[in-house]
Fold each of these.
Amino acid sequence: MEERTKPRLFDSDSELEALLAAFDEARIPRHLWTHREHLAVATLYVLQQRGLDAIRTGIQRLNEANGVPQTPTGGYHETITRAYAHLIADFLSEQREGTLAQRVGVLLASPLAHKNALLEYYSKELLMSVAARGEWSGPDLKPLTGGPVTQPS
């Protein structure tokens, strides 16, 4: 079994608020827009009930600012964004205590933060398909509802 290293957590709510402001203003450089930052921003958007359209628009705006072209195999991915938004909302419904940094930290330390977490719900073929990138594709392995994501092997 692959051993996961502990994720670098956010030190404070103000660090997260600065990340969110940079995201909202499309000021995060491409090399700093990592999986960790995607999850942190999505968590904040879910907590603030900003909605999927706002998450989608923000990612697309940031990609454009960083010169990331939208192609059939690159750029914004609708299914990954929607699936993570759903799973994060489900996760946060059970994590109601703590500061923003603490709640984001719990999520980042969970199996949900693993880059392959969605492969519990989707086959790689479906998730990486052109169709799934461009529009919502429901999971083909198990529903997104109920139960925690397990630790990937």
Amino acid sequence: MSNSRTKKSSRASDYGWFVRRFGVNQNVMPECRVWNQMLNRCFNAKVAEYARYGGRGIFVCARWTPKGLAEGRRCTSRERRVAFLNFMSDMGRRPSADYSIEREDNNLGYSKTNCVWATATTQGNNKRNNRMLTFRGKTQTAAQWCRELQVSRYAILRRIDVLGWSVDEALAKPVRNDLTHTQIAEIVRRVRAGESRRDVANVFGVTQQTVGRFVRAHGVVRSDR
């Protein structure tokens, strides 16, 4: 009887602390789903994402991992509850539904020192296969540079990989100067023939705005998307 009371008291104390701090039961929190998915990626070899996480040595810190899971046995409710409380104590609530958990160093595991809540855009910038470019003392992904300079990513990478330009040359020179008169004429011809500006822009490595400028200059008035 005493042992049963102790367990109930401990459980009530955990939940009471949780509700007082976060204002809601953990079972209905989106953060609980994020936490479960994180554990699955790192411990469950049956899920598709395991190869990119647990399969390559990405771990979840002991503080966020239920003891039973770390020991390879069935977890108790108490162990899961304690681990999730630790996770929430370290991470806090996510700012909005647009945020999910992100590892700042993709070669390290999930822990308080390596994790933040981040948007999909931020996470996309941090992917292992992103191309990092350093220009004027600043390092960003190719996608970030293209957004900042308002140029096409295809054009920048074409300059570097196909034309053999340095990163400084590729990012400093306006994209529109890349094209010959023949290429510009071909852009206009394709739009007149019905191709979308987006597809033509991707083929020639320029922005849709550049395609639009060439089209307007040659008297094409169609509104391609």
